Amino acid sequence: MTEQLKNKESALKVKKGIEQPSSFNPEAVQLFKSSKHELLSVKEYVEGIKSGNRTILSKAITLIESSLAKHQKIAQEIIEKSLPFSGNSIRVGITGVPGVGKSTFIEALGKQLTNKGHKLAVLAIDPSSQRTKGSILGDKTRMEELATDENAFIRPSPSAGSLGGVARKTKEIIILCEAAGFDIIFVETVGVGQSETAVHSMVDFFLLLMLAGAGDELQGIKRGIMEMADAIIINKADGDNLQKTKRAKHEYENALHLFPPTGSGWVPKVNICSAITKKGVREVWEIINKFKNLTIENGYFQRKRKEQELKIMYETIKENFWDNFEKNRFVKKMLPAIEEKVLKGETSSYQGAKELFDIYFNLFYK
Ligand code: GDP
């Protein structure tokens, strides 16, 4: 390389006296480095995350989502090292049937929050779907404004897997996002049914979005999910629908009275809002803040997080134990024969399980 070229740091022609822009985007350089099958060191990931570098954050999340043992090992180290810098956020679960307006609502509330300087991460849980890269793109366009907001970070659900697995990974992603400085985490359920319970087990506040139905207002959402809600917000309170939502509000309020108290000292709230006109959206944030203040003061907030940690520990044990059991070569060898005996009715399922346990545990105790 000639001297002349070496000194020429940018291809851009810049006027004298004006600072020369760097010819490389440092984040892009990191991306390039880490996309070439080349993993960064754990320290580089952790430092990158702590400095709020979203490219590195994204790469670390990809490691969490990877099923390769090598990636998992690094991911666990990154999580361990990020843990001391996590926890400083409010985690909000947002659920509701498809079409209720979750993404419109998240965009409306999210923009208000990022405009105030908050850093918002939006994660999704959808264990049922076999999403492709195409719909990840779809996700981005669902929240167009947030997707280009530098104070927001949108990450779609880890693609398919067991609900437990997806939930555990989402919890780990929350830790990394918090370490990266995101002080508000929204976890949206995309699938309907089981995932609400999983989301509930990882958030501080559980928000249920509803629609004012034509007939029975309580239709469509299981009672158990309503019982978990810290707030029920009836969306689409605009135009001709406004009166209907007001009536629905009273009906939900009456229904909530019949539910047992939650132990948080908080009485679940019912409100109406329009994610489109944004009327009532700010009030939802006020409700969340009131909940946070009350439960931090009475100790419930911290207690619940600790209980969630314990739950994760037990789930991890269960999952690891099953993994180890299933992969054990003696168990593996005997499994088809025992399965066969159970299918033929020669052995009961309990006896079959006992035989396999005996094989497994005898390996350790003999
Ligand atoms: P999601 O499936 O729960 O994420 O729902 P979307 O946010 O994609 O919204 C579904 C449809 O409802 C879209 O056509 C939105 O424009 C519309 N929608 C969302 N919020 C409102 C609202 O407050 N009022 C009205 N009138 N329409 C809304």
CATH superfamily of the largest domain: P-loop containing nucleotide triphosphate hydrolases
Distance between the termini: 69 Å
Going across the biggest sheet, name each strand in turn: 3-2-4-1-5-6-7
Portion of residues within helices: 40-55%
Please give the radius of gyration in angstroms: 25 Å
- CATH topology tier name of the largest domain: Rossmann fold
- Decide which structural class fits the backbone: alpha/beta
Q: Which descriptors apply to this entry?
A:
366 residues, alpha/beta, Single alpha-helices involved in coiled-coils or other helix-helix interfaces, Rossmann fold, 7-stranded parallel beta sheet, binds guanosine-5'-diphosphate
Give an overview in words.
The model is unreliable at 1-14 and 131-140 (pLDDT under 50). The chain folds into three domains: 29-85, Up-down Bundle (Single alpha-helices involved in coiled-coils or other helix-helix interfaces); 86-298, P-loop containing nucleotide triphosphate hydrolases (Rossmann fold, 3-Layer(aba) Sandwich); 328-365, no CATH class. The chain is globular. Helix 2 (26-35) packs parallel to helix 4 (54-65), helix 4 (54-65) packs across helix 5 and helix 6 (102-115) crosses helix 13. By secondary structure, the chain is an alpha/beta fold. The protein has helices at residues 3-7, 26-35, 42-50, 54-65, 69-82, 102-115, 133-142, 144-147, 163-179, 195-200, 223-228, 242-257, 281-297, 300-327, 329-344, 349-365, and strands spanning 90-95, 120-125, 152-155, 184-189, 205-210, 231-234, 269-272. Strand 5 (205-210), helix 11 and strand 6 form a beta-alpha-beta unit. It has a seven-stranded parallel beta sheet with strand order 3-2-4-1-5-6-7, with helices on both faces. It has 16 helices and seven strands. Residues 96, 98-104, 235-236, 238, 274-276 line the site of guanosine-5'-diphosphate.
